[in-house]
């Protein structure tokens, strides 16, 4: 199975700053079948990015995804207060099983 | 709008079973597949398996084989996940999530989660 390692575990930034979250796979993810999700307390998980770089419906363009192979990045260009949450990457290229990273907590500095 | 509404929190004793439901609305129930994912306290997300609402075919993560059963009721657009022989390690929040393709798919909608606590 593909193991996804997210870094950093916690990222402390201020509103308006740029956030860069990393997701590294233990082996190449075919077809760039990688997604990013946002989780806030008391809310359902929200799909942000699929296919490594495609924004899901309704996702603001300050969210962008990039990468291929084993290295993927989620970038939030200008942090807004609503963006502080936990972010997870997921690979669905080599399945089963579908696997997730352990998450990056983005907190207000 | 698409909604996945899950059943409420459960408390179970070790060795018992739990059955979590997920009622879908806002789309054609038989047009998408449904996954189950769980998150134990302080842990990451763990995929459990997938079910096709048409016909009920399933693929389970190997670690849950023999202990989990996923089913659907097309008459009520509801999916179920039953986990048997519960241990303390099964304490987690259980989520249903929709996928458009079989296995090779992101999850575009998620349920709100059902906390399951295993306690003596």
Written account of the structure:
The complex is a heterodimer of chains A (109) and B (120). Chain A is mainly beta. Chain A contains no helices and eleven strands. In chain A, strands 2, 4, 5, 6, 9, 10 and 11 form a seven-stranded mixed β-sheet that branches. Chain A has a four-stranded antiparallel β-sheet with strand order 1-3-8-7, with no helix packed on it. Chain A is globular. Chain B is mostly beta strands and 120 residues long. Chain B has strands at residues 3-6, 10-12, 18-25, 33-39, 45-51, 58-60, 68-73, 78-83, 92-99, 107-110, 114-118. In chain B, the strands form two sheets. In chain B, strands 2, 4, 5, 6, 9, 10 and 11 form a seven-stranded mixed β-sheet that branches.
Short characterization:
The complex is a heterodimer of chains A (109) and B (120). Chain A is mainly β.
Descriptive key words:
heterodimer, A: 109 residues, mainly beta, 7-stranded mixed β-sheet, 11 strands, B: 120 residues, 4-stranded antiparallel β-sheet, 0% helix, globular
Can you lay out the helices and strands and say which pair or pack?
The complex is a heterodimer of chains A (109) and B (120).
Chain A lengths: L3 E4 L2 E4 L5 E7 L8 E6 L6 E5 L3 E2 L7 E6 L2 E6 L9 E6 L7 E2 L3 E5 L1
Parallel strand pairs in A: 2-11
Antiparallel strand pairs in A: 1-3, 3-8, 4-5, 4-9, 5-6, 7-8, 9-10, 9-11
Chain B lengths: L2 E4 L3 E3 L5 E8 L7 E7 L5 E7 L6 E3 L7 E6 L4 E6 L8 E8 L7 E4 L3 E5 L2
Parallel strand pairs in B: 2-11
Antiparallel strand pairs in B: 1-3, 3-8, 4-5, 4-9, 5-6, 7-8, 9-10, 9-11
């Amino acid at each position: 199975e593909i193991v996804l390692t997210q870094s950093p575990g916690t990222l402390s930034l201020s509103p308006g700053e740029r956030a860069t979250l990393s997701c590294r796979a233990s082996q190449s993810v075919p077809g760039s079948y990688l997604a990013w999700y946002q989780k806030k307390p008391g809310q359902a998980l929200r799909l942000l990015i699929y296919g490594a770089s495609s924004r899901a419906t309704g996702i603001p363009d300050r969210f962008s995804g990039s990468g291929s192979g084993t290295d993927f990045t989620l970038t939030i260009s200008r942090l807004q207060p609503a963006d502080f949450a936990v972010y997870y990457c997921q690979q669905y290229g080599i399945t089963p099983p579908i696997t997730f990273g352990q998450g990056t907590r983005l907190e207000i500095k | 709008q698409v909604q996945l509404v899950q059943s409420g929190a459960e408390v179970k004793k070790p060795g018992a079973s739990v059955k979590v439901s997920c009622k879908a609305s806002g789309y054609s129930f038989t047009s998408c597949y449904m996954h189950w994912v769980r998150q134990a306290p302080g842990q990451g997300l763990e995929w459990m398996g997938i079910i096709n609402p048409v016909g009920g075919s399933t693929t389970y993560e190997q670690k849950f084989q023999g202990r989990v059963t996923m089913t659907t009721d097309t008459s009520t657009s509801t999916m179920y996940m039953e986990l048997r022989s519960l241990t303390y390690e099964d304490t987690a929040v259980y989520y249903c999530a929709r996928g458009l393709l079989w296995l090779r798919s992101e999850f575009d909608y998620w349920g709100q989660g059902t906390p399951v606590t295993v306690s003596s």
